[in-house]
Design a protein that fits this description.
4 domains; single chain; alpha+beta; 22 helices; five-stranded antiparallel beta sheet
Length: 549
């Protein structure tokens, strides 16, 4: 078992040999001095090519991480994405004697389970290798067996990746916008799922049920009685890679029909079922002599909830119609946050992307151009998007590339638009949508019916004097000021009223023997009261207009 410290040294050695010695000194301080790190190879390749070669040499964890990162077009430069898509997960197979104990964990007596197990694997990758076998009842199966010790190696690498992400973000603060720690966390969840072959089997079963009604689409049956977390037994399928045009023609098949069949299958998986095969590279898609397309390797799948499916349909429709406002609206519904300061610039860039796409000559129209332009714009403005959206876009681009290899006249734009329009109409009239509308109406009606009860409860609370009002210091000072001004006006009003009442009483008793100056004071009191009264009215009216402003 490789220790964490030994693995650090191995990683430092590989990076240094591919010309990343400066990065090693920054991220692995002192590691190079513990061991004589060899001089880097001559830098004849581009920096992105050297990144790919280093990843391939670092092993399964980093290869898988690179493959998953190849979907994040909104984060990484196109040149790096292109190299990551070329990552090869092919390694020398292990001797069968090392694999046999893993099979025995699920079939203790191999002779009771199998008539034959071919010791030479038909395929080998970093996580597993596949052996052809024949069961006791005569079924030909493929045994996908996990490599011994691979779980411990990957868990060690995941700890190192998490540590590296934290260190890189602390050394290079500008990279925090990419959320490296979040990406490593997402990757950790993904690769642990891939290490559980039972999950692969359940994904295959779900795809099989979903594709049951589509002719010529083949998903192998899983044999659960000889399967588990580290061994997956499934029907063995004979076929050729989907990009092998000559071999397909040799079967007497038409590559153009295979392209349409694959396109139809993926449209249904993504936009109807909301559960799709997430790794459609040509090695995972076989064409049988009967003209069937077989889907293999179910470790990476995409999941779209119903509400997300509707938004994705709207997004793609807006792109095919050069509707920038529709694209922005759909992105907003996907919780994609665009800086308000950048919004106009983003709209301008998207408009140019979609305009260039629509103005291409018909024979050059390729929807991948619009998707790549969209992701380039997202990357330019550091806009982060849901991984499910990027996985869907990656799958669409890969399906288009395969379609064009099979049929140079394959036009994704013309094929996808009728599907999207029909699916959008079905979704809006679906029982689920109708159910949501009914639930919204019922909820609104319940809210309206609850208004009288809520009003009564509020009035009851007020009448009982149990209302608690929280005031901030500024609000309290403002209230005190209002009370002071109001009390002043009340006092002035009382004084004026007293003067008027007193003057009236004096004048009413003018026939009594009172001094003349008292009558004069009473008359002056009236005048004073009138003046104060007019001033008070003027002050109230002016204060009211000020509040209205």
């Amino acid at each position: 078992m490789v220790t964490r410290f030994q693995r650090y040294r191995q990683i430092a050695d590989v990076l240094s040999r591919y010309g990343f010695g400066i990065l090693v000194e920054e991220v692995f301080p002192g590691v190079g001095r513990l061991r004589g790190v060899r001089k880097p190879v001559e830098e004849k390749q581009s920096v992105y090519e050297r990144i790919r070669l280093a990843i391939e040499e670092l092993g399964p964890t980093y290869i898988k991480f690179g493959q998953i990162m190849s979907t994040r077009r909104e984060l990484l430069p196109p040149e790096l994405i292109e190299e990551l898509q070329r990552l090869q997960d092919r390694v020398a197979p292990l001797p069968f004697e090392e694999i046999r104990p893993e099979i025995r964990k699920y079939c203790p007596n191999l002779e009771e389970c199998f008539d034959v197990i071919e010791e030479e694997p038909v395929a080998a990758a970093s996580l597993s290798q596949v052996h052809r076998a024949v069961t006791r009842d005569g079924r030909v199966v493929a045994l996908k067996v996990q490599r011994p010790g691979i779980v411990d190696l990957i868990e060690t690498d995941l700890l190192i990746l998490q540590s590296l992400a934290r260190r890189v973000e602390s050394i290079f603060p500008d990279l925090r916008v990419y959320n490296l720690q979040g990406m490593v966390e997402e990757f950790s969840v993904q690769i642990r799922r891939e290490l559980d072959f039972s999950q692969d089997g359940m994904n295959a079963e779900r795809l099989r049920r979903n594709m049951h009604d589509i002719p010529c689409v083949l998903i192998p049956r899983i044999h659960w009685h000889i399967s588990g977390p580290r061994l997956l037994a499934m029907d063995y399928i004979e076929g050729v890679r989907i990009d092998d045009v000559e071999a397909i023609r040799a079967f007497g098949l038409f590559p153009e029909e295979i392209a349409d069949l694959g396109f139809h299958a993926y449209v249904n998986q993504i936009f109807v079922d909301g559960f799709f095969h997430g790794d459609p590279h040509p090695g995972n898609l076989l064409v049988t002599a009967q003209g069937e397309i077989a889907f293999l390797d179910y470790g990476i799948v995409g999941v779209l909830r119903p509400e997300r499916k509707r938004v994705f349909v709207d997004l793609l429709l807006a792109m095919t119609r050069t509707d920038v406002a529709g694209v922005i609206t759909a992105l907003g519904r996907l919780d994609v946050h665009i800086n308000p300061a950048d919004l106009d610039a983003v709209k301008d860039d998207l408009y140019l992307v979609l305009l260039d796409y629509r103005e291409m000559k018909l024979e050059r129209v390729n929807f991948a151009t619009a998707i790549r332009g969209l992701t380039d714009t997202l990357r330019r403005y550091h806009i982060r998007v849901p991984p499910s959206l990027m996985l869907m876009m990656k799958v669409i681009v890969m399906v288009m590339d395969i379609g064009i290899r099979l049929d140079p006249t394959f036009n994704f734009d013309q094929k996808i638009r009728p599907y999207l329009v029909e699916i959008a109409a079905q979704q809006r009239l679906s029982p689920e949508t109708m159910g949501n509308a009914v639930r919204s109406l019922v909820s609104a009606a319940e809210g309206l019916l609850a208004i009288p009860e809520n009003v009564n409860e509020t009035l009851k609370t007020l009448s009982e004097g149990t209302v608690t009002i929280e005031l901030e210091d500024n609000d309290l000072r403002r209230i005190v000021g209002v009370i002071d001004r109001t009390s002043d006006k009340i006092i002035v009003g009382l004084v004026v009223a007293s003067i008027v009442v007193g003057s009236s009483l004096i004048l009413r008793v003018a026939d009594l023997p009172i001094p003349g100056y008292v009558s004069t004071l009473a008359a002056l009191g009236y005048v004073f009261a009138v003046v104060i009264g007019f001033y008070a009215v003027y002050s109230v009216l002016r204060h009211g207009r000020a509040l209205q402003r």
